[in-house]
Amino acid sequence: MSAMTNVSSSTPSTSRQAASKFDQGEFVYNLDLVVLAVLAVLVLFSLPRAFTRYTHLPEWFQGLLLHTAKIDVPVQLDKQVAEAPITPLSRAYFSPTSPTGGGHGFNDFYTEKAYNGSDEGHGPRGNLNRNKSSGSAHANLLRNTSTSSGRVRRTHVNLPSHMQGWSSILPSVSHYLRLTIRPGLTVGKAFIVLAYTVAIVYAGLLKSNPFTQPVRSGWVAVSQVPVVIILATKNNVPGMLLGVGYERLNFFHRYAGRLVVLAVNVHALGFIYAWSIAGTFTQHLTVPHYRAGLIALVCADVLAFFSTSFWRNKFYSVFVATHIIGVVVLLGAICMHSNPSVPYVLIAVGAYALDRVLRFVKTRYAYAHLTALNELGMTRIEVPVVNAGWRAGQHVRIRVLSRGMGWFGWAECHPFSIASVAKSPNEEGLVLMCKKAGTWTTKLFDLAKRAEYGEAGGYQHGVRVLIEGPYGGPGHTLFASFSGALFVAGGSGITFALSAVQDLVQKDLRGESRLKSIELVWIVQDPSMLIPLIPTFTDILSQRTYATIHISVHYTQAGNAQSALKTLSQKPLPKDLTLHAGRPKLAQTLSSVIDQACALSLFKRGAPRKSGAGGINSTGPCGVIVGVCGPGGLADDARSIVGAVDSKRRKQVGGVEIHEDIWLVIRRDLHPCIRQAFARVRQHSRYMSFPRALMTMVARSNFRHSIPSSHPIILTSVLIISPH
């Protein structure tokens, strides 16, 4: 990979003289020290919130290992509270207006009852003092046991300490750093990538000519191998120190890998050029360490080729296999090529070995129950024996060990967000909800259907699974330390929101939450997707929590909505669960959450709230957290709404922060018009070959006019990836 000590005699004499005067190894070593210094500065900035988090003893053990725990006895209320009547569920009433009109599906009476007089049913409780006839705002703020909602006042004995994040301290800077350049790339990420690129280019060109002195580029490449390997692992030290999951650092792993491949090729081409001019190319290939360098070059290029998005999304197994084999051969070839490179290789091998050991420790072999949710197009996986060890918002990686997944389906490991709360009082284990979106998830959905059929026939049918995790999550952020929370989920992103809300409800019941208002907004295509989750939502809303909870579901397609609306109109819905047509007005919803957090906190300003151990006393609001999980476009909307909050209101509430749990898929990166065009081509390809269907659509001008001018090579790309 780099001939640091083996400079050929055919290399120009100036190169040898420069190499003797300039210590290449020490120079790239200093480059690595600069990278470590930058990492240390970032860790230093994250220390205040990390320290605040770990002042609570349970946080030292949560989110590390999945295990089985004894369920605590549910919170016992006093007799008066326990016997207080709960408002009965009322039947949902839909207005006779067309659901396509963009209004909500309930009449004004139902909306006012649930929202206490909010505008258009889009923002819950938009004005706390508006509806005087429904009860005074004073009584509503007290939330005593006589309120119709059944909410109670309780003593908060172990409130989590709250520490403002840098996004609350420097909101303008944070807003601009979160602006999206393209899907998956924000201004902040681009700044990090640019700074890293400048450092690598500077190290490669300072007092060095890549054409006459190719040794330098080899040193630079091998010095960055540990960076690439460390960031590729699931359990990496930088992520642990920063409180950031591996999935958020993966973009930097890919970019650093590309720079390493570029440096390797510059290094090799420099020597190949010099040998070709001197006519000694064949002679040098007989030298063992040069042959090892050529092998390293081939491995690096193969890794780069199979790391493209096409292979990652279409043939993930090939991508993984080539990575494992290629990295092993590459590291061995580097050691054979250059002895000074061995320490860098050992660091990379050590990091990878540590990751494999931790992944083995984090893996559980268990029995799982499968349930097919036809309305959602999802498969529900429940692992009863695993009921603790994760935090809200974390995910696990799962392998299904069943012949029903195909010959090699057992070898595939897929990540899914956890949709249940740890130590659930209803004795529910770890729950995953897997959306049917590809070949593997489709096989899993079909397997779940066969499992249900077997159980209906009297056979106990389940699957054995390997669960690895947990990973990711909110890091050092404590959702329960804020005064208000807004969770926005799109489609299958409801798994993240459900886990977060259920966790906050349990902490509220134990008196371990500062939250005064919790708002959940779920955006779906079809209103029928609400039906399977009505029992779960009902259970959440029936809890006697101190915080107010409201759930609103918005559907965006009204094509097949009539039958679903008819079914929903016959089902009992809790009053704080509402259904609306059209997209939500997130700005109004966030404004309402801020109003409630401010009003309910200021109402008790006279009595300071004592935080947990190591915390600080606070008499004002502790901020609002916005959690978003869904497509990249939904995250962009949430960022813009958070950035648009008035500075005065932001300061009044104690800051507004955002946590994103976004999983980008290649099809999300395509223009919507292109996706529609693909769908029409696939429809025509049922009756003819794919290329012929494509040409037919182009001839009819249906496909050509649906492609924007910014995608001129899409037709060629379609032909290249054609399955035929």
Automatic annotation (TrEMBL):
<dbReference type="InterPro" id="IPR039261">
    <property type="entry name" value="FNR_nucleotide-bd"/>
</dbReference>
<dbReference type="InterPro" id="IPR017938">
    <property type="entry name" value="Riboflavin_synthase-like_b-brl"/>
</dbReference>
<feature type="transmembrane region" description="Helical">
    <location>
        <begin position="315"/>
        <end position="334"/>
    </location>
</feature>
<keyword id="KW-0406">Ion transport</keyword>
<keyword id="KW-0325">Glycoprotein</keyword>
<keyword id="KW-0813">Transport</keyword>
<keyword id="KW-0560">Oxidoreductase</keyword>
<feature type="transmembrane region" description="Helical">
    <location>
        <begin position="290"/>
        <end position="308"/>
    </location>
</feature>
<protein>
    <recommendedName>
        <fullName>ferric-chelate reductase (NADPH)</fullName>
        <ecNumber>1.16.1.9</ecNumber>
    </recommendedName>
</protein>
<dbReference type="InterPro" id="IPR013121">
    <property type="entry name" value="Fe_red_NAD-bd_6"/>
</dbReference>
<feature type="transmembrane region" description="Helical">
    <location>
        <begin position="187"/>
        <end position="205"/>
    </location>
</feature>
<dbReference type="Pfam" id="PF08030">
    <property type="entry name" value="NAD_binding_6"/>
</dbReference>
<feature type="transmembrane region" description="Helical">
    <location>
        <begin position="255"/>
        <end position="278"/>
    </location>
</feature>
<keyword id="KW-0249">Electron transport</keyword>
<dbReference type="InterPro" id="IPR051410">
    <property type="entry name" value="Ferric/Cupric_Reductase"/>
</dbReference>
<dbReference type="InterPro" id="IPR017927">
    <property type="entry name" value="FAD-bd_FR_type"/>
</dbReference>
<keyword id="KW-1003">Cell membrane</keyword>
<feature type="transmembrane region" description="Helical">
    <location>
        <begin position="27"/>
        <end position="47"/>
    </location>
</feature>
<feature type="transmembrane region" description="Helical">
    <location>
        <begin position="217"/>
        <end position="234"/>
    </location>
</feature>
<keyword id="KW-1133">Transmembrane helix</keyword>
<dbReference type="Pfam" id="PF08022">
    <property type="entry name" value="FAD_binding_8"/>
</dbReference>
<feature type="compositionally biased region" description="Polar residues">
    <location>
        <begin position="128"/>
        <end position="150"/>
    </location>
</feature>
<feature type="region of interest" description="Disordered">
    <location>
        <begin position="117"/>
        <end position="152"/>
    </location>
</feature>
<dbReference type="InterPro" id="IPR013112">
    <property type="entry name" value="FAD-bd_8"/>
</dbReference>
<feature type="domain" description="FAD-binding FR-type">
    <location>
        <begin position="353"/>
        <end position="477"/>
    </location>
</feature>
<dbReference type="InterPro" id="IPR013130">
    <property type="entry name" value="Fe3_Rdtase_TM_dom"/>
</dbReference>
<comment type="similarity">
    <text>Belongs to the ferric reductase (FRE) family.</text>
</comment>
<keyword id="KW-0472">Membrane</keyword>
<dbReference type="Pfam" id="PF01794">
    <property type="entry name" value="Ferric_reduct"/>
</dbReference>
<keyword id="KW-0812">Transmembrane</keyword>
